[in-house]
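Task 17 of the worksheet. Students: predict the tertiary structure of the chain below and write it out as structure tokens. Keep your answer in the requested format; marks are given for formatting as well as content.
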Amino acid sequence: MSEPKGIDHLSADRIWSESVYADCVSEDGQSGFIIRLCRYPEQNTSWLWAHAFFPEKLLAYNDNYLPCPGGITRVEEDDVSYVLTGKPAVVLKRTGARDQPLGARVICAVMAHPDPDAVNGPGPLSLQIEAELRPGHHPWRPNKYRSEWLGDVSGIIETVNSRIEIQGLGHWHEQHQKAPRWQVPFTYLTLRGPNLALIATAMKDDDTGFILRGSEMSKVISIFIDLPGKRRAFRFTLEDGPHLSGEIITTHEYTVPIYDQRRPGTLVMAVVGKERLSGCVNDWLIKP
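Model answer:
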């Protein structure tokens, strides 16, 4: 098999890719993890991002130049695993059907950097993450290529000198496609609380997302959000009539490398009326 070349030379090509994402954020937005693996099996290329967040620091691993073991994943089957073997190593496994998941499990071991703007490749610090995710609702399927759900998460983050148990609300996301990735500007939000949660993408001509209140789901049809900053106001228009507005407060900032740029990401808290939420907001090609 050829050596992996990374995502740079795939930036404009229509090539099958498989992206899977898992995260967990504590209620106060101070602690958590984010793991994302994207596989290009026909090109023997993968990229992996793994971040662990603590109140006083974060650890980060990025590598866009990894191999891609195995063939195309049968993404619509039950009990699917997305795997990267060797060093680094990651397994992201969904149990049950894509439209009726029973849960998911994450195991990840990398050598991380104590740097929010980590370079590609291994760092000096061992980082291991294991977690179980339990869905709190039926998946949101905006199209046949994409599936997302929110739910409870429990897990362990281990570093050289510590072993920390983490509990919070998390997000599981699978997306496969042939369209090139990272081609248009967007802001992507995923916020969760015990009574209110949302996933949404703001783009120039195609805002989309959903709001979850208990077991009731409403479709988002338009989004306003402030430009990136420590505090950001937002307002969603929903298909069934009412608006939802609030403020986002950044708790952690970091970046990941994409092509010749860095994509900003944040862990956040949010206030929506009497509700307190936590989660993530990411921007691509959005200038503050």
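Marker's comment: The chain has no helices and 19 strands. The chain has one domain: 15-284.
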